[in-house]
Specification:
four-stranded antiparallel sheet; six-stranded antiparallel sheet; 5 helices; alpha+beta; 29% strand; DUF1444 family protein; 2 domains
C-alpha cells in the first residue's frame, strides 16, 4: 500500500500536546478512533493534525490503517510538513535577551520537534546551546543557555502565559544534542 496522496496522513503536521495525568479518562475511545501519539519529552507528546477549513483534525489510528502508513512514516511526513510551513511562515524576533518564534498561532510550540530549526537555521543564536519555553501551542521563546538574563526573561514568559488558550506546560527545556530535556523551573 502507498500513502494516499490527499489523505490526512500526507497532510499531517506535527503538533505538541501535554501528557495528561488523569486517573479516569473523560471519554473512552476505541484504538481505531484514538489519536496517534508519540512520546517527545517527559511531559509532551507529538500528535498529528491536518488543518481543515475551520479546525485541526487529529490523525487517528484508523487513518494509518486506511492509508497504509506506519507511525514512523507519519511522524516523518508530519515533521516535513511542519518544516515546509515554517519555511513559509516562520519569523523569529529578538526581544531583549530572548527570541520569540512567530508562525500564525497554532504550531509555534511544535517547532521544538523541528531539528533543522535548532541545528541549522538558528544555531548561530545560541552557540552555548538552546533553552526554550513553550507554555502554549502558539508560544515559543528561546535563548542561549549561557544567558542569565535570557533565562530570567523565559521565566517571565511562562509566568505571563498563565491565562492563555491551549496551554501546554510551564517548563524550561534545554537542547542537548538532538533532544530536549526538561529543566527545573524556579520562578
Amino acid at each position: 500500500m502507498t500513502v494516499t496522496e490527499g489523505g490526512i496522513c500526507a497532510r499531517a503536521i506535527a503538533y505538541l500536546k501535554p501528557v495528561v495525568q488523569e486517573s479516569t479518562p473523560a471519554i473512552s475511545l476505541s484504538r481505531e478512533d484514538s489519536p496517534v501519539l508519540r512520546p517527545f519529552i517527559d511531559d509532551l507528546m507529538v500528535s498529528y493534525v491536518a488543518d481543515t477549513a475551520d479546525h485541526l483534525a487529529f490523525v487517528q489510528h484508523r487513518h494509518l490503517e486506511q492509508e497504509g502508513v506506519s507511525v514512523d512514516q507519519l511522524h516523518s511526513m508530519a515533521v516535513s510538513n511542519l518544516q515546509a510551513l515554517a519555511e513559509e511562515k516562520l519569523a523569529v524576533r529578538e526581544y531583549g535577551s530572548i527570541y520569540v518564534a512567530l508562525m500564525g498561532g497554532n504550531f509555534e510550540a511544535s517547532l521544538l520537534t523541528l531539528d533543522a530549526m535548532w541545528n541549522d537555521w538558528y544555531a548561530h543564536l545560541a552557540p552555548q546551546g538552546f533553552v526554550a519555553v513553550a507554555p502554549a501551542r502558539d508560544l515559543l521563546a528561546f535563548c542561549d543557555s549561557s544567558s542569565a538574563q535570557g533565562l530570567v526573561e523565559l521565566r517571565h514568559v511562562v509566568e505571563r502565559s498563565g491565562d492563555c488558550d491551549h496551554r501546554l506546560l510551564p517548563h524550561l527545556y534545554r537542547r542537548t544534542g538532538a533532544e530536549w530535556k526538561q529543566l527545573p523551573f524556579t520562578p
